Amino acid sequence: MDFSGVANQEIQSLISEGIQLWSTSQEVLEQQALKELEILAEEARDKQPPVIFDLKKASPEEHEPNSSEHESNSLEPDPNSPEPDDDSGSDYIPSDAELAERQPTRRKKGRLKTASKRKPAATLKVTDDALEENYQARLEQYYTRLEQELQAVGPSEGKDYKKLKGGLKAPKDAWNKLYEYQKEGVYWLWELHQRSSGGLLGDEMGLGKTVQIIAFFHALQYSRPISNHCKYVGLGPTIIVCPATVIHQWVKHFHEWSPEFRVVVLHQSGTHQGQKAKLIAEGNRNKAILITTYAAVLKYKGNLCEHSWHYLVLDEGHIIRNPSAKVTVAVKELRTPHRIMLTGSPMQNNLTELWSLFDFTNPGMLGNLAVFTEHFANPILQGGFANASPMQEATALSVASTLKNVISPFLLRRMKTDVKDHIQLPHKSEQVLFCSLTEQQRDIYKDYLMSEHVNNILGRGAKRWRSDNFMKGHLLMAITALRKICNHPDLFIHDEGDDVAPEENFGNYKNSGKMVVVSALLKIWRKQGHRTLLFSQGRIMLRIFEAFLQQHGYKYLKMDGATSVGSRQGLIDTFNQDVSYQVFLLTTRVGGLGVNLTGANRVIIYDPDWNPATDSQARERAWRIGQDRPVTIYRLLCAGTVEEKMYQRQVWKQLLSNKVLIDPTTNKFFKSSDLFDLFSLPESPKASIETANIFRESRVKIMEKIKRNETPDVDESEKVRAMRALARKISQSLTKEPAIDAYRLELEEERQQKLQEKAKLKHLTAQELVEFNRLKTAVREDEDKNTLDGDVAGGSFEEALERSSKSAALYRKITTKQIRPSELKALKAKGRKRRCSMSPDTSGKIDGQLVKGLVKRETKAPPKRHKPSKGDYILEHLFSKKGVAAALEHESVLRGGQRQQSLKVRSHADEKAVQALDALKKSRRLKEWKW
Ligand SMILES: Nc1ncnc2c1ncn2[C@@H]1O[C@H](COP(=O)(O)OP(=O)(O)OP(=O)(O)O)[C@@H](O)[C@H]1O
C-alpha cells in the first residue's frame, strides 16, 4: 500500500494544529483521538489539494464536488464527466467524507445505468441587474405595478414609510409583512449599525435571516442616517457572500422585498459577461449590492480590496469557521466597517470555530486564538467530559457563562421554539432509525474488520496513531470503507480495479439494510401523497437511488455538485411548484445549505456526517416558513457500525455548542470512542443499539406514541383508505420475513409481567390462576385478530375486562380473590362468544385481509384513550419489520441535564472565569475603522 500522498505538507501542518488544539492533558488527548481525525478531515478538505490514497479496497465513493460554478447545459450531468474544477467554487461546508472521496477515480464506463436521458425539468432563471437596461426595465415594471396598486386602493393615506424606534424609518408595506421577531432583528441590526459594530445573526434555519437583512437595508435606505464615521447616506455599496446554490435566491428575495436596490451577481451564472474587475468597480460606484460566492472572493480578492464597502454580509458564514483557511483570511481583508454574518449553525465542531466567526464580525473581541483556547476552549471542553471532576465541571460552567455574556450583544439567535407565538410552523418529528445490516453487508463488514488493514491499524496504530500521519491516513481510509459498506456494499465491492463489470445488479436495493428501509418508506409515502427530500453525501449513492427511483416509477429531481449553478434555482422552484415530483435527490452539501424546499414534507438523511450541523442544515430545508404540512425527518444509521459512533460524535458536538450558545449548564457529554470501538460490530443486531441504550429515555415507544397521538397527520379518509390498502399489501410481504417486532414483544412482555405481578399479589389459588390465564389468552387471541378496526380488541387485558361494568365487577372479584368458579366460567364463555360474534369486516383485517404487522386501531375509543393518528404510526410499526432495530427522538437526545455545584467549587470556578476574561481583554487588539 502506498500512502505517500497522505504525508503532504498541508496535512502535516493540519494534524499538528489539531493536536495542539486538544493537547491539554494526556487524558483529554486520549479522549480526543477521534476528534483529531475529524479535524484533520474537515480542515484538509478546506485546503487543497486533497489527500491521495490508493488503497484499492478502501478507495472511496466518488466525491461530492464543490457546489461549483461549473456550467453544464444538461440538468443530468454525464456520470463519467470529469469533476468540476475545485477552484471554481469552494462555497459549502466541506466534510471528511469528501476528503477521502476527492480522489481521482478511474471510473468504468457505464458502470451504473441511470438512464440519464430524462427530459430536463423546466428551469426558472432569475436575472440580476448587472446590465443597465435590465435594471431600468425591471424598475419600470415595478413602478407601473405600484401605480396600478395605488390607483386601485384610492388616494394614498399619507406617508409610505413608518417611523420606528431609535430614528429608524422603514417602508410600511415591507415592515408590516415582517414577523415580530424579525422586526426585533431589524432593530438589533440598527443598533449595531449605530455602534459601527458587526454581529452574528444566528437564527435557526428557515426563520428568515435573508429577509431580515433585506428589510434592514431597506430601512437604512429610508432612514438615511448621517454619521461622522460614515461617508454614505443610506446604504452604500455592499457585498453579500453566499453559497453558489443560493445566489439566485438572494436576487429573488431582493427583487421581491426591496425592488429598488440594484443587485448584481459576481459569478459566472450572473448576466454580466465582461471583465469582472469592471463589474466590481461599477457596482461599487453605483452603490449596488454585489452578490457573490466564497470562491469568487478568493478569485477576485485583489479587485474587491481596491474599494471600500459599506456592508459585508456572509451568508452561511460558518463556512469561514477554520481561522487559517484561505477563504477566512480573504474575507477579513475586505475593507468595511460593518460585518454581518448569517448562519443557523454558529458552532459546529469546536470552540475555535466560534472564535473564527467572531473574529470576523468583531475583530479582536475574543482576543487572540492562543489565549482563547487556553482560557475558554480547553476548560469548557474538559469540564464537559463524563469523567470531569466537580471542579472542572464548575469551571466549565463559569467560563461558558462568561463567554456567553461576552458574545451576547453581538449574537442574535432565536430558535423555532422561541418564536412559536409569532409563526405557525407545523409539527415536526425527527427520529434516528437504527437499521440492521443485510446478511451480505454484515459479512463484508466483518471481513473488513478482520482484514490485515484493520489489524495493522489496531495493532500498531492504536498506540501511535495520534502522532503518526501515515497511520491517520490508513484510519481515514478504513472508516471510509466501512461507511461505504453501510451505505451499499456495492460501493465497496465494485470499486475500480475490480475486473467484473457489475452493471446489471449494481446497487440492488435489497442488498443494503438502509435502502430497504428507504424503499418501504417511499412506497408508503407515495400512496399517502407525501413528498420527500432524500439526502446523501456521495454522488454515486445518489445515482444508485436514481436508478432505484427509475425502476420503481418515481418522478424525481436530482441536484448535486455537478448540477450547474444556473439551473439549481430552477430545479428548486420546479420541485416546490410541481407536486408530481415525489422525490428530490440531493447531496447534503449542495442541497442542504440555504435553500427553501418546503414542497417536501418528508426528509431522509441517508448517511450521517461527522459534523452535526451538516445534517441539521439538510433537515431544515423543509421545516421552515412556508411549510404547512407536518414534517417527518428520519436519520438512518446502521446499528452497531461506525455510523452509530458518528452519530454519538454529533450529539457530543451539539451539546458542546449548546453549552456556549444556549445553556451553559448543559452537562451531558460522554466519552469519545476509542479505536477498538470504531472497528467493532456486535454480533446481534439487538445488542448493537448502543446509542439507543445510552439515551434510553429518548427511545421512541411506538405504542405509547400512538396512544398520545403525537404525530397528527393529514386526516383524510381517502388517504387512510389508500394507506390501508398499501399496508395490507406490505404486511403480506412482511409476514413472510422472519423479522422480529422488537417493540411489540417488549410491550407484550411488560404487560405479561404486570398481570402476573397482580395475580401474585392477590394470592389467587392455582385453579383461579389457571382460569385467569385462560381468559387472558382468549382476550389476546381476540386482540391478534383485531389488529385493526376491531371494536372488541384493543388495550390490555384489564381494559378488555373493564369494557362492561359486569366484567369490571368480575375482574375486581378475581383480583380481590372473591370470585366463584361459576362466575369465572361465565366470564370465559363471554370471551368466547365475543370472539365468535365478530363480523369479518371488523375482525382485525384491513379490507378483508389480516394485517399482522400493524398496530391496532380502535373504532370505538374506550374512555381516556385518544383516537390514534391515521398516518405515521403504521409506518413506524412497519419499520421494525424492515430491519429497524430502534428509533430515537433526536431532539430528546440533545436535552442535557443540569448539575449543581458546591459553593466552594463555584467560587473557585468563578475566579477562573474572571482570570479568563482578564486574559482575553489583555490579548484584545480592537480595530478602529477608518474610511
Ligand atoms: N415575514 C415573512 N413573510 C413571508 N415569508 C417569509 C417571511 N420571512 C421569511 N419568509 C420566507 O421564509 C423562507 C425562509 O427564509 P430565509 O431563506 O430568509 O431563511 P434563513 O433563515 O435565511 O434560512 P437558512 O438559514 O436556511 O438560509 C423564505 O422562503 C422566505 O421567503
The neighbouring-strand order within the major sheet is 5-6-4-7-8-3-9
Report strand %. 5-15%
Overall number of strands: 18
Helix coverage percent: 40-55%
Largest sheet: 7 strands, parallel
Tally of separate helices? 38
Low-confidence stretches: 1-33, 41-111, 113-125, 702-719, 730-743, 783-798, 800-807, 833-871, 896-900
The set of bound ligands, ions and cofactors reads: adenosine-5'-triphosphate
Shape: globular
Q: What class would the helix/strand composition place it in?
A: alpha/beta
- Report mean pLDDT, rounded to a whole number: 69
- CA radius of gyration: 30 Å
**How far apart are the termini?**
57 Å
What does this structure look like?
This protein is an alpha/beta fold. The protein contains 38 helices and 18 strands. The strands form four sheets. It has a seven-stranded parallel sheet with strand order 5-6-4-7-8-3-9, with helices on both faces. The protein has a seven-stranded mixed sheet with strand order 12-13-11-14-15-10-18, with helices on both faces. Helix 10 links the parallel strand 5 (263-266) and strand 6 (289-293). Helix 8 (209-223) packs across helix 9 and helix 16 (390-407) crosses helix 38 (903-923). The longest helix is centred in the first third of the chain and has 22 residues, at 132-153. Adenosine-5'-triphosphate binds next to helix 8.
